[in-house]
Write a structure and sequence with these properties.
Blueprint (H helix, E strand, L loop, with lengths): L12 H13 L6 H16 L4 H18 L1 H5 L2 H16 L29 H5 L11 H17 L3 H10 L6 H22 L4 H20 L3 H12 L1 H4 L2 H4 L4 H13 L3 H13 L8 H14 L11 H16 L11 H10 L6 H11 L30 H19 L6 E3 H8 L16 E3 H15 L23
């Protein structure tokens, strides 16, 4: 037995791993309720056998370990919980236990705390007002805050989410993985839109260069998932076709882009990325799609059973090893701090949603087609969120409103020096330049200043149009029909 004594302690690290693997991975081949039922039917047989002193509590200990280590399984399955209660009723009838594992919380191990990588700013940091202007943000600062958001999403993915995706082949009805898809696509689009929002080729080249520096910092932080999203945005054809912009990039920037695309290339099943990732220690965020692909390959390549009634333990061990490696990253400590105001700004920026056609239309507006210029051969860009294809999760109006209000709170905290509910129009225009939409502002209550309510209305309108939420603004704005004779945004 892997249990050493009547307290249910495990006999060895190997025994502990065996039990942990069985409890985590059995549902890949046997439904959890069936597994629990097996414990229920096994108990009476063991309790009346000659070896009952050694074996009767095998069922009890397995149930204890299962409930304490994987409580989420029971929270999602009331029938499973009832089966375990039936097992404990049998145990009580034998006079060996008095409490149910669901009522006697002393028998349960503490649940893993929610991972929160935000650290309170130091006293000196609290006094400093942060800049919420894109052009003022340092690439290191931007990479660290994107990594905060990425790691927070990654830590919310459980072993049940991995199994759901592999079995279902989709992120539908899987909120944790949907958030990961949304962030990857959001970062990629945000990179493209920030470049395309600039009016001149020189300005676009400067933004492109800044994002290369962000990508290099992401590489140094070993955040490969966001690195894939940023590099994918820089390599997107709506950006790579901007010949005037690319001609202004310094040689070291184009070299850095080439090195990043080589690192993230899908060539030979991501051989370059896998080599670098396996050499990384400490804090790191993997390219989630690559590792999900590995789980799918294992699940399809190996049979569930090696004979009619023998489970293929080798398959479970391989799957368990891969998933355990991903879950182990949750306990890593990020080597950075996060500022909530910048997080609110980035969160709202990543809520933007444009269709491919809209992004291409914007690209052609910035640099129209020139039939005399042949497009240069481009490296094959990384595929962003390929594993989430076919699903376009979007935020609902309530979430957008929440994110807008959070960002407006941050704006007022950092720019409303007199605390009267107003900031200068100049500050507002610089902050609004962080977003690729631009609207005329109605006459404000004060000359040269804009109120909290007017800022909120501006961003609600812009975000709702970009996110295709369909808000009705007829009550708040006076629209006039206008005919344009050239492409206009």
């Amino acid at each position: 037995s892997v249990f050493a004594d009547s307290e249910g302690k495990l006999s060895s690290p190997k025994g502990s791993q065996l039990v942990h693997m069985t409890l985590m991975m059995h549902s890949w081949v046997v439904p959890s309720q069936m597994f629990a039922h097996k414990l229920l039917t096994l108990y009476p047989q063991l309790s009346h056998s000659r070896t009952s002193s050694k074996h009767t509590f095998l069922s009890r200990c397995a149930a204890r370990q299962w409930i304490s280590q994987f409580p989420a399984v029971f929270e999602a399955n009331t029938l499973l919980e009832q089966t375990i209660e039936d097992l404990w009723a049998l145990v009580r009838s034998e006079g060996e236990e008095t409490n149910s594992p669901f009522t006697d919380t002393s028998c349960l191990l503490p649940r893993s705390p929610h991972v929160n990588v935000y650290r309170a700013p130091s006293p000196s940091m609290k006094k400093r007002k942060v800049s919420l202007i894109f052009d003022h943000m340092e690439p290191d600062e931007m990479a660290e805050h994107l990594s905060y958001l990425e790691f927070k999403n990654f830590c919310s993915i459980s072993f049940l989410d991995y199994r759901s995706y592999v079995v279902q082949g989709s992120v539908r009805e899987n909120p944790a993985l949907e958030r990961s898809v949304m962030m990857c696509n959001g970062v990629s689009q945000w990179v493209q839109l920030m470049i395309l929002s600039r009016h001149t080729a020189q300005q676009r080249a400067q933004v492109f260069t800044k994002f290369i520096h962000v990508a290099q910092k992401l590489r140094a932080l070993q955040n490969f998932n966001t690195l894939m999203a940023v590099t994918g945005g820089l390599c997107h054809s709506s950006i790579s076709r901007l010949k005037d912009t690319f001609n202004l990039l310094p040689p070291d920037i184009t070299k850095a882009l080439s090195e990043l695309t080589e690192l993230l290339s899908s060539h030979s099943n991501y051989i370059n990325y896998r080599r670098v990732y396996n050499e990384c220690g400490g804090f790191k965020v993997p390219i989630l799609g690559v590792h999900l692909k590995d789980l799918i390959s294992l699940n399809e390549a190996l049979p569930d059973y090696i004979s009619e009634d023998k489970i293929n333990l080798s398959k479970l061990q391989h799957l368990y090893s891969n998933i355990s490696d991903l879950l182990a990253i949750h306990s890593c400590t990020p080597p950075f701090e996060a500022n909530k105001d910048l997080l609110h700004l980035l969160t709202l920026s990543l809520d933007l949603y444009y269709t491919e056609d809209e992004i291409y239309e914007l690209s052609y507006t910035k640099e129209p087609k020139n039939p005399k210029i042949q497009p240069a051969a481009q490296d094959k860009p990384p595929v962003v969120a390929e594993w989430g294809s076919g699903v376009t999760p979007r935020h609902d109006p309530d979430t957008i409103s929440k994110h807008v209000n959070q960002m407006v709170d941050s704006i007022m905290k950092n720019y409303d020096q007199s605390q009267d509910g107003y900031i200068s129009l100049q500050d507002f225009e610089e902050i609004a330049a962080n977003f690729p939409f631009s609207f005329c502002i109605r006459k404000t209550d004060r000359d040269g200043q804009i109120s909290r309510e007017e800022i909120t209305s501006y961003f609600i309108r812009g975000m709702s149009i970009c996110a295709k939420l369909g808000y009705n603004f007829n009550d708040a704005h006076n629209f006039h029909e206008t005919t344009y004779k050239r492409p206009t945004f």
